[in-house]
Amino acid sequence: MSAQLGLLGKKIGMTQVFADDGESVPCTVIQAGPCVVVGTRTQERDGYTALVLGFDEKPARLANKAELGAAKAANAKPQRFVRELRVTAEDLAKYTLGQVIGPKDVFQDGAPLDVEGWSKGKGYQGVIKKHHMKGMTRAHGTHEYFRHGGSIGCRLTPQRVHKGKRMAGQMGNEKVTQQNLQLFRILADENVILVRGSVPGATDGYVVVTLAATRKQYKRKGMGKEEVRSKNPLKASKKAAAGRG
Fold this sequence. Notes:
With 245 residues, the chain is of the alpha+beta class. 14% of the residues lie in helices and 34% in strands. It has six helices and twelve strands. The strands form three sheets. A six-stranded antiparallel β-barrel has the order 1-2-11-10-7-12. The protein has a four-stranded antiparallel β-sheet with strand order 5-4-3-6. The longest helix has 9 residues, at 65-73. The radius of gyration is 25 Å and the shape is extended.
C-alpha cells in the first residue's frame, strides 16, 4: 500500500480556467480542507503509521460516543467525513493531534494527484450500456433479441456460469480512483484546488485527494517530443492539407 500525503475534500463542480498561454483548461473544483488531524496510528501501538483526518464539521447531537471521544481528544468538533491516510513515519512526525491543515500544507502547483471518490450510481443496467456490447442484428428473423446478453454457458460443460461473466446488473456506485491528474491551481484562501480533468462522483460528493502513487511529475499524454518532420514532400503536403503541417 502506498504511503502518500493527502487531504479530504468535497467535489464542488467543474469550470474552465485560462492558463498563462491562453489555453482553456477544464478543471474540477474541489474544496480540500480545512482538515483536522483527529487521530494518529503509530508503528509501536498499531503496527503501521497513518494520519486520521476529518473534514466537514457536524453538530455534536449527530455524533456517537466514539466520534465525540475522538473529537474531544483532538480538541475539535465532530467531523462528517473521516478517513485514514497511510503515511511514512517522517511525515507523521510533522503533524500533531488537533492540527488543522489545508492545501498549501500538502500540495504544490502542478503536482500529480490521485483522486478517489464514489462513482455516480446508474441503477440496474443491461449489457449494452454496462459492458458496451453491440447487440443483435435488426434483421427480419430477429425478434425481441436486439439488446439481450446472449448465451452465458453450456448445460453440459462447464454446467455453470463462470465467475466474472459480463451480465446485466448494478452499474456505478463504486469506489473509483482517477490517477495522475494535474493540480492546476491552489486557491489557499478558500481552501480550494483546481484539478485538470474530471473527478469521480457527483457534485457535493466526498473525495480523497493524495499525491500520485506512481509518479512524481505530471505529464500529459501526447505532449512529448515533437515528431520528426518527414522529408517526403508528398507526406508533407498531405499533413498541410489536414491542418497538421
